[in-house]
């Protein structure tokens, strides 16, 4: 019995060392980990840019992070709009959801509100290229407050639709602040 368990252990050791992966070693990049991932209160994103020009690498990193944030905001807005449509029935609900989505597109295409840079690191690689890493976050409740403010300022939409968009924002703000 002892000989049998030793031989199985020897076979396992041989298999585990001979089947090792040739994928290379893992790389720990800055701003990776749980604290740099979106959560219930914040949209968070990181970006990486590499270039021979320091400013270009910074711009690439910023663009990558902004793109990731815009995608998260867009997805979140879609979920909020879908939930609102399921909860509320009425003649102006579809129009309100479309206005809500268009306000969101307008925001993400121009400026992302309450954007805070939580980190930035710059490295010079062995080949002379600059590698820039950035991390950004947006407080979700602040984003919905800004959407509400924009909805109030829109004069070309019907009052009933504006009220429903504001209600959508209020519902989400209260849910986020619980």
Write structural notes for this entry.
By secondary structure, this protein is an alpha+beta fold. The chain has one domain. The chain has helices at residues 2-18, 54-87, 93-109, 140-153, 159-176, and strands at residues 42-51, 115-124, 130-139.
What's the gist of this structure?
The protein contains 5 helices and 3 strands. With 178 residues, the chain is α+β, with helices and mostly antiparallel strands.
Question: What is the overall silhouette?
Answer: elongated
Could you give the count of β-strands? 3
Order of helices and strands: HEHHEEHH
> Which band does the percent of strand residues land in?
15-25%
The spatial strand order of the largest sheet comes to: 1-3-2
* Mean pLDDT across all amino acids: 81
What's the number of helices? 5
Main structural class: alpha+beta
Main beta sheet strand tally, sense and closure: 3 strands, antiparallel
Low-pLDDT stretches: none
What is the domain tally?
A: 1
Feature tags:
178 residues, alpha+beta
Topology:
Layout: H1 2-18, E1 42-51, H2 54-87, H3 93-109, E2 115-124, E3 130-139, H4 140-153, H5 159-176
Antiparallel strand pairs: 1-3, 2-3
């Amino acid at each position: 019995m002892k000989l049998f368990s030793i031989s199985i252990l020897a076979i396992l050791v041989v298999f585990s060392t001979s089947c090792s992966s040739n994928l290379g070693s893992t790389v720990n990049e800055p701003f990776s980990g749980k604290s740099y991932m979106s959560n219930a209160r914040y949209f968070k994103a990181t970006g990486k840019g590499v270039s021979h020009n320091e400013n270009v690498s910074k711009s690439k990193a910023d663009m990558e992070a902004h793109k990731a944030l815009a995608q998260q905001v867009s997805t979140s807005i879609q979920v909020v709009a879908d939930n609102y449509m399921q909860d509320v029935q009425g003649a102006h609900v579809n129009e309100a959801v479309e206005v809500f989505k268009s306000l969101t597109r307008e925001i993400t295409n121009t400026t992302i509100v309450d954007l805070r840079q939580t980190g930035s690191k710059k490295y010079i690689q062995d080949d002379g290229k600059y590698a820039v890493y950035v991390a950004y976050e947006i407080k979700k409740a602040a984003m919905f407050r800004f959407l509400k403010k924009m909805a109030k300022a829109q004069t070309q939409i019907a009052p009933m639709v504006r009220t429903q968009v504001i209600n959508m924002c209020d519902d989400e703000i209260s849910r986020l602040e619980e």
